């Protein structure tokens, strides 16, 4: 095989982390993008991506080598595992099957692939490192100060940061050094005065009584022979809760604490360990006077300790570190991406107000913080107050923040130009009120820092409709803003909670924009950890708020998201892992809330946040109103039963399948008896009441046409082309219409600029997605301007229906491409990086022709539907498609010519 024809990318799928090493055979070099450190997956999954300019490339076999060193990574000397040649088409999630992996050990691997064309050469070298696999591997003890200090604000839950330090020596040449750290609730680690890593707000939040995430950081380059110092700053995070007045509702875990272990390996083969114990020194009397996620950070630069994390610092006034009780949860490596500053945003305007303060406008609603430069006299206090929008008089609108103070304060030390950004807080904002700033602020002195999990943007989308494009951009910013080690509902007010119902279907759409797999696998763990012994699943997980309302729709997220992950990635382990928890919860709900008529009676929220008839009708009205619906609960429970009947077989629990199928059958009969009206609608004839049974397949075939007509009548006639759905209906709105031949009506809804619509939000200044359709008129108690729950299935529709990029087999091993031809939409250009590689769909149409450029990744195949009067009118690369080798004409389906094809780049044209 010619090397330039194949590029092999080796990926380490550690329960779907985004960590991987990329190798290129084209130029015979290995570029290490990330070396996963400290994993505790004892059988990691290995994946690779095959890129080739040839068409129809399919894997037929592979061979994996794993070794303890690069030198041993040969076919004859791989001392850990040689898979041998394995006949398989699977290039993703191939499980390591060698000897047991050892704590604190590094492993190197490479792969060779056989294809239907030829065999690749060996890939370059990738690697991973194991963490501390056993509880006993942690040699240190938890340290901290389990008490308030006189200057702590107990009433507001704003503690000063805790600082800890330890000096040590390395008297030999260091081969490798890794720091394993659990800093609760948030930490920053320093070696010899330099921060380690670019992660922020670490580690990812969890229910710390259930599990605690540790991070592993490579500090080899920092440890030369000589004297060194470790420094750690601890912030509150979610550990010391932001609000503790309602102990029955809000879960808190105690005062910040630390467990750290540095493992050093010397070139002579010896090892050393630096661990937390009572020889460490600590203080809470430092420059971070207060920190709290809701309220912000107060930093007094006059109290900085110069050289505090360097050797030789005078620590005599510091306290002896105290042993404290461990949090209680199991120790787990953080396999999801760390949060980082992912984008810097420059202000678009700075306006002076009559009161002498300034309003800084960043032009975009986002979540993060402001980094700024300032020069002034010692003791000058600069305050930054955050908001999403302005009052009509130009002042900050902050009523929707509720009691979140959302304020950062910096007190100058008076030593030249000072630069500062907070460490242990973030805010959701577009505007900042600046007060106390010495001199005239300049745009170049301020930088907005967008913070979210370090995941790749994997999808792009552009069309001929500028409004559709802007909604996509707003969605990207809203989704990114609300990734905070878990998917939260909003980033600005005193909530920021991981509500399950916001992501039931939304997570699916998000997956086309972001590589969010590791985040959502971690979140499913959080949900399972929050499940009660009797099976109950909360509405918020981790259960920072104790909301166990026993409804169907919010806990249903556990199965819906697991389903999404399996479909989008092909990793069946996510089903195996979550099936027992779903089964336990399904039984819990059935035993308690299904009545003798077969109806699921328990619901809490109904079609949450359905829009008032007009924006004016909702003016000043609090949207926090629950309208429980047995119809919605029963419909969802039916759909879950159908899914469980299927997944019981897929996961090897086939004995459950018949029971779930029978349950679904009875639910369908009971649902139609109870809720179907002979006039052709369900329930109260609300749009959502009709959408759910149609999408879930609950409507008797002889009635389906009537119900679909009723759906269209409500939208076209009663709503004048608008939606009238809350969260539950919007989850299935666009796909229900499209699946039933009304993609034109779905497009009309998506293109609206008047209330209620996504376009209405944009017309009223939104740069993200609102919580409410009438977010500009509703009472401010609940009108977040940066939410994602109202996206529903819109982004799924963008990719699967407008672009025509849809998985027909898990992980996009097989792809179905059938873009909707809608009057008024003349072009779509979309890309999606699947687990198998890049998929592209770029089409244009006119009154007379259709042109479509497609890219299909290696080791997959696609079935495409091209608008055409006949197969003979379809051309590929200027030739009749039926004459092109590798293109297989299947049949005509109405006005579409259907072809099957393998991987490659294709250019189609057809007359219309």
From TrEMBL:
SUPFAM superfamilies: Six-hairpin glycosidases (SSF48208). Its EC number is 3.2.1.40. GO terms for molecular function: alpha-L-rhamnosidase activity. Residues 457-802 form the Alpha-L-rhamnosidase six-hairpin glycosidase domain. The keyword Protein transport does not apply. GO terms for biological process: carbohydrate metabolic process. Residues 1-21 form the signal peptide. Residues 352-452 form the Alpha-L-rhamnosidase concanavalin-like domain. Residues 172-342 form the Bacterial alpha-L-rhamnosidase N-terminal domain. It is an enzyme of class 3 (hydrolase). The keyword Hydrolase applies. Residues 804-878 form the Alpha-L-rhamnosidase C-terminal domain. Keywords: Hydrolase, Signal. It catalyses: Hydrolysis of terminal non-reducing alpha-L-rhamnose residues in alpha-L-rhamnosides. InterPro entries: 6-hairpin_glycosidase_sf, 6hp_glycosidase-like_sf, Alpha_rhamnosid, Bac_rhamnosid6H, Bac_rhamnosid_C, Bac_rhamnosid_N, Ig-like_fold, Rhamnosid_concanavalin. It comes from Pedobacter nyackensis. Coiled coil: none annotated. It holds the Pfam family Bac_rhamnosid_N. This is alpha-L-rhamnosidase.
């Amino acid at each position: 095989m010619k090397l330039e024809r194949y590029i092999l990318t080796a990926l380490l799928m550690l329960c779907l982390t985004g960590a991987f090493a990329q190798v290129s055979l084209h130029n015979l070099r290995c570029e290490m993008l990330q070396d996963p450190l400290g994993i505790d997956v004892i059988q990691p999954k290995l994946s690779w991506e095959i890129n080739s300019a040839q068409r129809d490339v399919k894997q037929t076999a592979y061979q994996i080598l794993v070794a303890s060193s690069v030198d041993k990574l040969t076919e004859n000397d791989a001392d850990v595992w040689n898979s041998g040649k394995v006949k398989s088409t699977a290039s993703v999630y191939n499980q390591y099957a060698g000897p047991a992996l050892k704590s604190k050990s590094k492993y190197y691997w490479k792969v060779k692939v056989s294809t239907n064309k030829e065999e690749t050469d060996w890939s370059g070298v990738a690697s991973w490192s194991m963490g501390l696999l056993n509880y006993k591997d942690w040699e240190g003890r938890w340290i901290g100060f389990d008490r308030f200090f006189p200057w702590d604000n107990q009433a507001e839950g704003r503690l000063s940061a805790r600082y800890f330090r330890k000096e040590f020596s390395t008297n030999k040449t260091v081969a490798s050094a890794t720091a394993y750290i659990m800093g609760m609730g948030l930490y920053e680690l320093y070696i010899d005065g330099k921060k380690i890593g670019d992660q922020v707000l670490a580690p990812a939040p969890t229910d710390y009584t259930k599990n605690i995430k540790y991070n592993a950081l490579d500090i080899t380059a920092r440890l030369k022979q000589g004297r060194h110092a470790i420094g750690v700053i601890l912030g509150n995070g979610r550990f010391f809760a932001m609000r503790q007045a309602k102990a029955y509702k809000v879960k808190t875990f105690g005062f910040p604490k630390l467990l750290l272990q540095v493992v050093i390996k010397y070139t002579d083969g010896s090892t050393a360990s630096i661990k937390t114990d009572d020889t460490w020194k600590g203080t809470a009397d430092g420059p971070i006077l207060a920190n709290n996620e809701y309220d912000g950070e107060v930093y007094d630069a006059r109290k900085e300790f110069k050289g505090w994390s360097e050797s030789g610092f005078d620590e005599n006034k510091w306290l002896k570190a105290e042993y404290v009780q461990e949090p209680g949860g199991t120790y787990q490596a953080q396999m999801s991406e760390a949060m980082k500053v992912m984008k810097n945003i420059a202000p678009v305007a700075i306006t002076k107000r009559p009161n002498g303060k300034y309003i800084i406008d960043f032009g975009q609603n986002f979540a993060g913080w402001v980094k700024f430069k300032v020069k002034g006299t010692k003791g000058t206090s600069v305050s930054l107050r955050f908001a999403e929008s302005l009052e009509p008089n130009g002042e900050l609108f902050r009523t929707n923040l509720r009691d979140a103070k959302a304020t950062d304060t910096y007190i100058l030390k008076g030593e030249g130009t000072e630069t500062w950004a907070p460490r242990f807080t973030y805010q959701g904002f577009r505007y900042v009120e600046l007060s106390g700033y010495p001199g005239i602020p300049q745009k170049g002195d301020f930088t907005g820092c967008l913070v979210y999990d370090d995941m790749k943007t994997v999808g792009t989308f552009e069309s001929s409709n500028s409004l559709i494009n802007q909604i996509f951009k707003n969605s990207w910013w809203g989704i990114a803003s609300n990734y905070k080690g878990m998917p939260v509902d909003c980033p600005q007010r005193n909530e920021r909670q991981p509500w399950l119902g916001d992501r039931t279907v939304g997570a699916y759409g998000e997956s086309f924009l972001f590589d969010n797999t590791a985040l959502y696998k971690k979140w499913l763990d959080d949900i399972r950890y929050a499940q009660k012994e009797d099976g109950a699943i909360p509405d918020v997980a981790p259960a920072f708020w104790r909301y166990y309302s026993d409804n169907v729709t919010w806990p249903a997220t556990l199965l819906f998201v697991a389903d999404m992950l399996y479909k989008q990635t092909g990793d069946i382990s996510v089903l195996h892992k979550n099936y027992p928890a779903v089964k336990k919860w399904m039984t819990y709900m059935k035993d308690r809330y299904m009545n003798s008529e077969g109806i699921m009676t328990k619901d809490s929220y109904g079609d949450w946040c359905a829009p008032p008839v007009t924006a004016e009708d909702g003016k000043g009205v609090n949207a926090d109103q629950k309208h429980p619906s047995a119809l919605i609960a029963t419909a969802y429970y039916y759909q879950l039963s159908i899914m469980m009947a299927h997944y019981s077989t897929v996961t090897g629990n086939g004995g459950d399948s018949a029971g779930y199928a029978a349950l679904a059958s009875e639910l369908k009969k009971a649902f139609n008896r109870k809720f179907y009206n002979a006039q052709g609608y369900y329930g109260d004839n609300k749009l959502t009441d009709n959408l759910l049974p149609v999408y879930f397949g609950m409507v008797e075939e002889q009635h389906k046409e009537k119900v679909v007509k009723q759906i269209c009548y409500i939208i076209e006639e009663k709503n004048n082309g608008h939606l009238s759905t809350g969260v539950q209906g919007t989850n299935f709105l666009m796909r229900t219409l499209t699946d039933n031949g009304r993609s034109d009506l779905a497009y009309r809804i998506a293109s609206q600029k008047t209330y209620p619509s996504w376009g209405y939000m944009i017309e009223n200044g939104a740069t993200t997605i609102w919580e409410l359709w009438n977010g500009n008129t509703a009472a401010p108690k609940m009108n977040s301007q940066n939410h994602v729950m109202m996206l529903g299935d819109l982004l799924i529709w963008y990719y699967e229906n407008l672009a025509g990029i849809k998985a027909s087999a898990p992980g996009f091993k097989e792809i179905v491409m059938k873009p909707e031809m809608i009057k008024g939409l003349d072009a779509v250009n979309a890309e999606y990086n699947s687990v198998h590689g890049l998929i592209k769909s770029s089409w244009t149409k006119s009154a007379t022709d259709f042109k479509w450029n497609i890219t299909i990744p290696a080791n997959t195949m696609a079935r495409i539907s091209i608008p055409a009067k006949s197969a003979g009118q379809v051309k590929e690369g200027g030739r009749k498609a039926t004459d092109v080798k590798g293109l297989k004409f299947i049949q005509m389906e109405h006005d579409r010519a259907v072809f099957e094809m393998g991987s490659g780049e294709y250019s189609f044209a057809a007359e219309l």
